[in-house]
Amino acid sequence: MIWIVDDDSTIRDIEVYTLNSTGFEAKSFASGAPMFEALKTERPDLIVLDIMMPGDDGITILKKLRGNPTTKDIPIIMATAKGTEMDMITGLDTGADDYLVKPFGIMTLVSRIKAVLRRCGKQDDGNLLSAHGITMDVENHEVRVLGDDVELTKKEFAILRLFLQNPGKVYNRETLMHEVWGEEFVGESRTVDMHIKTLRQKLGDAAGCIKTVVGIGYRMEVVG
User: Collapsing DSSP states into helix, strand and coil, what is residue 76?
Assistant: First the structure.
């Protein structure tokens, strides 16, 4: 779970939407007060924190988080319009794990979040695949779609894993049968179509990312 703390509602909405669309779960707060209230019952994987906000500013919030034994290890990215060298030094020296200066590309934020999570040992790219609100834990054979657990068959899981590992690549039916069912399988291409159909049904609102390439096969849409 990624928390966005920013008093600009437009920025919050865009960042939460993008994170939810790229495999993360995200929620937002307009200031530090409701965030600290939520911390009484929840703990995020990472916080994206603005500096200039009503009430406590971001640096004050950062100091409070780092000074509390229960929150001192939460990764924090400062995302703010305060972009002088001294601002950045202050943020990093106070305990921020990264510092982004507004305006920045939204996918840059996603990349920085992934990088910080890797550095902090909270993400293993070899076992965690994500895109379009779909998150796959390869090792534990678990899939979440827009925050909800989804049960897939072994073949559906294998197809989805192939798409997540190779976004944008077009797979014809024969290649999918070879990759998922193996060389020894004897069957019709209709088998692939039926599995794609049931996979899409289970993915629900995220199913649109699996595109039909007319006359050829299927591909997963590239994020962004």
Answer: strand
